[in-house]
Here is the input.
Amino acid sequence: MYPIVEKKVLSENVKLLKIKAPLVAKKALPGQFIILRIDEKGERIPLTIADSDPKKGTVSIIFLEVGKTTKQLGLLNVGDSLENFAGPLGMPSEVKKYGTVVCVGGGVGIAPLYPIVKALKEAGNRVISILGAKTADLLLLENEIHAFSDEFYIATDDGSKGHKGFVSDVIQQVIDKNKVDMVMAIGPIIMMKVVSTVTKKYNIKTLVSLNPIMVDGTGMCGGCRVSIDGKTKFACVDGPEFDGHKVDYDNLMLRNRRFLHAEGEACKLAGAS
Amino acid sequence: MQIGRCLMSVRKTKHEMPEQTPKERIKNFKEVPYGYSKEIAIEEAKRCLQCKNKPCMKGCPVEIDIPGFINCIAQGNFEKAAEVIKAKNNLPAISGRVCPYESQCEGECTLKKIGEPVGIGRLERFIADYERGIGKKPPKKPQSTGKNVAVVGSGPAGLTCAGDLARMGHAVTVFEALHDPGGVLMYGIPEFRLPKAIVKSEVEYVKSLGVEVNYDIVVGKTITVQELMEEYDAVFIGTGAGLPNWLNIPGENLDGVYSANEFLTRVNMMKAYRFPEYDTPVKMGKVVVTFGAGNVAMDCARTALRLGAEKSYILYRRTEAEMPARTEEIEHAKQEGVIFKLLIAPIQFIGDEKGILKEVEYLKMQLGEPDESGRRRPVPIPGSEEKLAVDTALVAIGQSPNPLIPRTMKDLKIGKHGNIITDEDGRTSVPGIFAGGDIASGAATVILAMGAGKKAARAIDAYLKNN
Here is the structure.
């Protein structure tokens, strides 16, 4: 069992849980994820690691309540425990000195971006961060990421903070003004697709972190397969980060809709009970 | 002459094992056969000729004294029979259900000269179930050797190796990546063929031998083999063949195409057949095709029927004679109404405008010259393309060794199929590290993995005595 030692409500349906999982905390690197299961009847869901503390043996996860499991997770409190918490899984981000890097985070994708921003800054890069959300209230980790950024921009769909519009507008401006060596983008699939389209024009190395549906997370089921440059890769063991210019985003969107019907049914039943 | 006289008086066929009717069982996930009663078991055991040269034992990867335990059953001494089996096999309720007896013990049985062999598998299963029913005796703990061993993976190889090592007096810790023990026994083989309560009970037995099992530990990620080597005197790797093989044809990533592993893991380990009581869903349409003809393919096709498929097809590029599945699985699949379309090779999956699978296109094949496996090679018939309207496709054409440990351990010698290279007793290229089961052999059977775990346990014991 893995106890919850801290809980924060970041916005109406985005929550942070700090979990006691010393073995995972000891090994966790930026870009990696965990798989958790709330209880014996629960499903296994992957969540990217938002932060970890090897000394205290804790791992933080930040999640948007979208389906039955994340909603149930959001109801848990300090003192409750998770049945399973396995990781760290996947390949870590390639942290090194690139020069100038642009880190783009959208929505709840800002959470896994945070440890990467921190690591890239510590590796001696000039870090330009661009965070996007629907409205200002939904922006996550603004101060935390700002603290590790040389330049910092915000875009909101409604203009309630920063640029009114999308992160892709801002990245275009950043590229116009800077020589960018690498772009890291984590967020909704459509955001990563658009960012990759912009950077492709300038041939800037772009990494994206994919979040397909998974079951085991150890390379066994292939449920998380993604098409990279026409080749099938498993996000759980080959990823979750891939070359943004080579990802078949449309296929990923399609595959992530596979169980929408069942998700609706499960939520409805859970709500009724 | 002695045997000749006996043969004349022996019943020529095995006693049938009562089972659920096909009509009944495709509506549930309960185990298909009920098993022998005491009376039938004794009668079946009396068919055994007690051959002096014990040919059946040559076919047993875990070296069970087969005539010995059968003789106990014939005398009605079931507890003694259990002791005889357990002396060699820690998991008889499992092997008694999933072994390919026909090509092992029963394949060598003298009775085959006049008819059917002794139902050795059925008798093993009977004894295992009998013993579970009366409650297992706690085994005597051996004196501790003071040595400890880490076993990676709790599938058939790991559990066997762990159990045997514990009986030799070593302290054994098993590291399992998933949340349940058993590996393929839990995620792969369906409930109707191997009830999960039985797997758990066999694991409890192994634990009662003194083995500790840890879950959620993905070796290679949570902890490395090198780190295990610092804490343990030896390491056994039994991480199995978890990596699914693909057809590598267009459309394989459409919504509706699953690997057998994903489909079966959702249904078996995550209990999607009880959704929404359990949270994990599985989406399956009315017409389901499974590619492949091994045991896993039969499991997929039969599971599909139980989940409500109106039509469940097996598409295979060779003929029935070449099917790798156990005879019993093929028979059960046929009885349940699985439709076999043979000499067929898929060329593409076709989706609708939303990307949801709707058809599979295939070529008809004919058998040509024998290939390296000795089986006649299927060759496409030009211009024979046809399409079949389907909702769900399951790809069950084999698995490759799990790459997690090979990838993270550079000094371990790896074969061209991604398998860990070992000698016959499971020694890898690194002293103190042993491997066995599908991770070393490539995808094979539960019993061969158990046999490999057994051999490795002996090799580890010898290694620990000398180091």
